[in-house]
Every structure is written in C-alpha cells, then in structure tokens.
C-alpha cells in the first residue's frame, strides 16, 4: 500500500484557505478533507460535518482533556482542533487528505506525522488586499479586524516553515497551482 500524504494548508485570516481547498476538492475527488472541530459559531455558508464539526466549548475541552486531539489551540477566543482518530483513519486507509489549520497546528502535526505531512502556505497578493478581505466579511468589530490584521503579519512570518507557498490572487488559479504541486508530491510518494 502506498504511503498516504497529508497536505496541511495554512495562511492568515481571510486569505481564502477554505475557498481554495474547496476548489481543489471539486477538481480532484480522490483527495479527502480532514474535517476539524471548532467552538466558533457556524457561518451562514457552512455546514456541520462538512466545513467543521461545530462543538460546544465544554464538549471540546472534555475531548481535549481525554487526549483525543492531535492538536488544538485557541484562536480569536474560539477553540480549533484536529481529532487524532480522523487523521489516523485516513492514513491507515492509504487516503491522501487535505487539512486547513493554523501554523502552530501544522508544526504539531508535522512533529507527530513526520514525512507524510506537507505544508502549503497561502499568502495574500498584498497586505492591502488582505485588509479589504477582512473588512468585507462584515463579521467583526473594528477591534477584532485590527487584531486579525496584526496577527496576519505574524502568521505570514511563519511561512518559512512550510514546504510550499502560494499567493492567492484568484481562487481557481491558486487551487490549480496547488493541485499541480500536490500531484507532484503524490507521484513522488507512489
């Protein structure tokens, strides 16, 4: 059986990580998404079990205490985590998968999974473009938007820990470029 690859996608808030990954999954149905858990409220466009497993904070923390997350962290006042059982299930089945998490989570997963995990970092075309994207969401207070912009600069400094970096000027083009890289890695591992 070929070794399964786990592709971990990260980037600053509002860079389009989920949109790019959704496009990749439309193009290549052989890749599966690792659905993560969060305590943040569901957005109108999201579905439970597809975009995230939306959990109550107490349940999330109980699972964390039981050691059921390969990694978890608090981001902007909400918890996010990756269930160890979900990742192991995909790897044991030889299934290539893709996961969207922050840079801290990637480093933890890389430490646990090792050579089977590949980091893909998505950058905005510019900071001005990212600021507009954050503001256009219309979900956050001015204070929260300022914090997201500040954190974005810090996040982008961590791109050096990733195997591949891409600028997201256009979701479809970026998805196709990332998929070419993913297919190259898959070919090298077959």
What's the gist of this structure?
The chain is an alpha/beta fold and 190 residues long.
What would you say this structure looks like, in words?
The protein is 45% helix and 22% strand. The model has no long low-confidence stretch (mean pLDDT 89). Strand 5 (69-75) and strand 6 form a beta hairpin. It contains seven helices and nine strands; from the N terminus they run βαβββαββαβαβααβα. It has a single domain (6-188), classed as Rossmann fold (3-Layer(aba) Sandwich).
What is the strand and helix layout of this fold?
Blueprint: E1 6-10, H1 17-27, E2 32-33, E3 36-38, E4 52-54, H2 57-65, E5 69-75, E6 78-83, H3 84-92, E7 97-100, H4 103-113, E8 117-123, H5 127-137, H6 142-157, E9 164-167, H7 171-188
Parallel strand pairs: 1-7, 1-8, 2-7, 3-4, 8-9
Antiparallel strand pairs: 3-6, 5-6
Helix pairs in contact: 1-7, 5-6
Structural class: alpha/beta
Q: Would you report the number of β strands?
A: 9
CATH topology label: Rossmann fold
Strand content: 15-25%
Strand adjacency order, main sheet: 2-7-1-8-9
Radius of gyration (Å):
16 Å
Biggest sheet overview: 5 strands, parallel
Unreliable spans are none
Q: In angstroms, what separates the terminal alpha carbons?
A: 9 Å
What is the number of domains?
Answer: 1
Taken in chain order, the helices and strands follow as EHEEEHEEHEHEHHEH
Query: CATH-wise, what's the superfamily?
Result: P-loop containing nucleotide triphosphate hydrolases
The CATH first-level class comes to: Alpha Beta
Helix segment tally: 7
| Helix share bin | 40-55%
Instruction: Please state the second-level CATH architecture.
Output: 3-Layer(aba) Sandwich
Mean pLDDT: 89
């Amino acid at each position: 059986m070929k070794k399964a690859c786990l592709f971990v996608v990260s980037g600053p808030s509002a860079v389009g990580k989920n949109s790019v990954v959704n496009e990749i999954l439309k193009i290549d149905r052989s890749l599966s998404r690792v659905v993560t858990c969060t305590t943040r409220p569901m957005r109108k466009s999201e579905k439970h079990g597809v975009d995230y497993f939306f959990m109550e904070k107490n349940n999330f923390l109980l699972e964390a205490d039981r050691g059921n997350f390969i990694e978890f962290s608090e981001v902007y006042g909400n918890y996010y985590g990756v269930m160890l059982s979900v990742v192991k299930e995909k790897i044991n089945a030889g299934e290539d998968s893709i996961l969207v998490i922050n840079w801290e989570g990637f480093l933890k997963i890389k430490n646990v999974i090792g050579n089977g995990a590949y980091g893909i970092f998505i950058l905005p075309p510019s900071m001005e473009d990212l600021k507009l994207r954050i503001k256009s969401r219309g979900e956050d207070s001015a204070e929260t938007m300022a914090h997201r912009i500040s954190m974005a600069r810090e996040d982008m400094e961590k791109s050096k820990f990733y195997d591949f970096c891409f600028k997201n000027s256009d979701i479809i083009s970026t998805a196709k470029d990332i998929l070419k890289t993913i297919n190259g890695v898959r070919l090298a591992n077959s």
